[in-house]
Amino acid sequence: MNRSSMYLTALFLAVLLSRIPFLDAGYGVNTDAWRVARVARAMASTHTYMASRLPGYPVQEIACAFLWRGGADWKYGPLVLNAASAFFGALAVVLFALLARALGCKDYLLAAASLAFCPLFYISSVTSKDYVWGLAFCLASMLFVLKARPVAAGIFLGLAIGCRITYGAMALPLCFLLVSVPGAQPARRRVLWFGLSAALAAAVVFSPVFLQYGRGFLTFYDNHDRPGWSLLLSRMTVELWGWPGVAGLLLALAGVLHHGWRPASRTSLVCPPFHPLAWAAVLVIYIVAFFRLPDQAGYLMPVIPFVFLLLARFAQRTTFQIFCVLATVGSFVAPGAIFQDHAERAATVQNVRNFLSFTSTLTGKNMIVVGSWEQLIAVMPPKKTAGDTHFAGIMTSEEVLDALKNHFTIYYLPLIREFNYRVNGIDLAKYGGKDLRALYDERTKAKN
After folding, report:
1. Looking at the domain assignment, is residue 346 inside a domain?
2. Looking at the structure, do residues 209 and 307 belong to the same domain, yes or no?
């Protein structure tokens, strides 16, 4: 094993080991991570594909179903599925290091380590969302593009699309790069083989989704409040890089604006002039898409490696190195995004357990509308209840009327009453629903 391979192996192991303390405490703050766990358990027992949410994320969902069959349950499920994300996170870091090295980046190990520890990437690699899974396949695709191997590049892009369908937008920048690299085949033929192999791979991995849901699987949910500008700006900056990383980013950008484009000898990376245009195209595509649906900072995951590459090319090498160091510490200081995320995950799990302890005391037939907590409750171990208690995310008028017809008492949480009205136009209180929080406060007061 040569020295470079030893460094990359050490990098992979270091990233993987750094994730171990944060793999417990449930599947993640984001409810979608719990949806993945829920369908993984269901598919493991029924052997039938189910989407955690449409349009489907079949590569990760099916892989997690196999992992669940390997022995995951509530006790070990978060460790198993989160560890899978940790593996793909470490793999993505090594692939980025290989990619940066292939592009001639002098600081490829520093840049890769910085990617590993910037807040959004770190948090995504210890929870059960698909972000780092898709990024790993996308980086593998780009690496094969640089090697002028269009079929392999297309297959890996198809797998990335199977993790998150929005990776299909990477096809255009990758085609630009494929045209610019030297190879034995004519550029037009390379692009053709790349497009065909990517389309075929994506069609294969999405075939279970199509067979289960038909053409209607191409559905996106847009029922969340649009964030204000302050939250939007925070998701685009602090949630990606942390405050130290944002400071480093501004420093590097200020240097570029002040001194202009740096000569290649004074930057960390030398590459053909066409490459930065393709990298910039990635930023434009995904930032525009993010403004269309700015629900989660994770939607910007694909841009992070290309920010590193652009800064490595155009920022002075010293300022690029400072940016990398500051982005690396962003997960641990002011206030420590990874610790904050882990604490929030643990608190949410404990809150749901406390909630279930209270609802288990309800007698009679009850339908409790709990919003996104329904996903968490479905995965947690069942609890013995005094009555016949069921949980729903939100309810339509037909579901409410059916529950009342079957003599269920409907309870809701105050915020979920508002959410249910916004999404389905149904005010649960007008159908006789009761405020569960008010009932809890009433019983607590009576005990005291």
Report:
1. no
2. yes
253 in the same domain as 109 = yes
* CB contact at 8 A, 85 and 128: yes
In a domain, 255, yes or no: yes
Residue 255 and residue 315 in one domain: yes
Q: Which residue do the tokens 């942390």 mark? A: 242
On whether both 419 and 295 belong to a single domain, the answer is no
Query: 304, 339, 374 — which closes off a domain?
Result: 339
CA distance 53 to 331: 29
Tokens of 46: 């029924």
Q: What is the mean pLDDT of each run of 10 residues along the chain (448 residues)?
A: 87 96 92 94 92 94 88 77 97 97 93 96 96 98 95 98 96 92 82 96 96 83 73 91 94 81 68 88 95 91 96 92 93 85 94 91 92 91 85 92 93 91 91 90 82
Q: Could you give the number of structural domains in the chain?
A: 2
Same structural domain for residues 311 and 377?
Answer: no
Does 349 reside within a domain? no
Domain coverage including residue 373: 360-447
- Distance (Å, rounded) from C-alpha 89 to C-alpha 37? 18
In a domain, 344, yes or no: no
Angle (deg, nearest 10), helices 31-46 and 58-69:
60
Q: What is the mean pLDDT of the chain?
A: 91
pLDDT at 222: 56
